[in-house]
Write a structure and sequence with these properties.
Shape: globular
Radius of gyration: 25 Å
CATH topology of the largest domain: Double-stranded beta-helix
CATH class of the largest domain: Alpha Beta
Number of domains: 2
Helix content: 10-25%
Length: 372
Amino acid sequence: MVASLGSAELMDGSVLVQLLDGTQYDLPYLWLRDNCLCDDCRVTQTQEKRFMLSAVPVDISPQKVTLELGTLRVVWPDNHQSLFPIDSIHSSSGTSFAYQSVPWPKAFSPRTYNWSAFLTSKTVAIEALESFMQSGVIVIQQAPREPGTLEQLASVIGPIRELLFDRIHNVSVEGHVYNIAHTALGLPPHNDFASYSFPPSVQALHMLHNEVAGGESIVVDGWAVLERLRSDHPSYFQILCDFPVAFRQFDDNNETYAAAPMVRCDNTGNIISLRFSNQLMQMMSPLQTGLKAFYLAYHELCLRIADAEQDYRSTFRLEGGEIMLVAAHRILHAREPFEPTGKRHLQDAYFELDNVANKLVLLKRQRDDKHD
């Protein structure tokens, strides 16, 4: 970059940076002081912020600003100087943990990966995790059919998130029955533990044995459902973002309960979470304001989620030795009914998307460092 990159001008409460390519940054004075990159304002060993904004007055104003050779220089009243490379200002809007979700193609089926390669090959792990972050679901094949195998996933996707009702849950028609999953009935699309204030964001479902007729697995791209609902009925979508819904899951020893809207968006309107579980949803008070409008929106959402003909839905059989990994704040999973004439035993455990994203960043960094 050259010295004539652009200009910087002191405005009322901010610095206006105008670049020759047309880019503009309106940088508040407090933002500039708070984000100083110098060694006095940062912990040099960790690059954590050391400076505390309370150390300066709210009406602080620079003495001088200049833009030279791609760097914004700010001189403060106490002669402290803050240097901001324009690249650092530009990159502040991004994140290394970007969840680059992409729509499913028609006739979508989750991509498959070999268990041993997933655990031992960085190349395969990177490819698998990138696919997972984009589509929200992958299948890992040829895994051991031994109980507790899901513990080994921690080396690639991060530690198990322990919840109530067992660290690794057993799902079969035998043993501890505390919800519909432990029956032979069909299981409608849902994400697990909607009854938690912050439900787990990744779920691994490991089929140990599947020797029954029926019981096909179903996945639904909940975010695709919501985007179409937002386009067709924006008022319904907004109701689902605002109206609190109660969910409860319990047995003789445990009780979990949460009341929260079904849809959560970030501050730019991007969908970041769908909370949906027909079986855990509780009766709501008829005195709750907006109940009638909510049920109209909820009915439309249910129609779309249950529609088996849509391209945001995929049905397949999960065989013994296969593990389905789902991004649980996006993907709803389900199961067709089955005939309990043979053995069907599934184990599931929960993880966190932040840890998966972190592992992907580290693996890619290791790969790139090796190629340097």
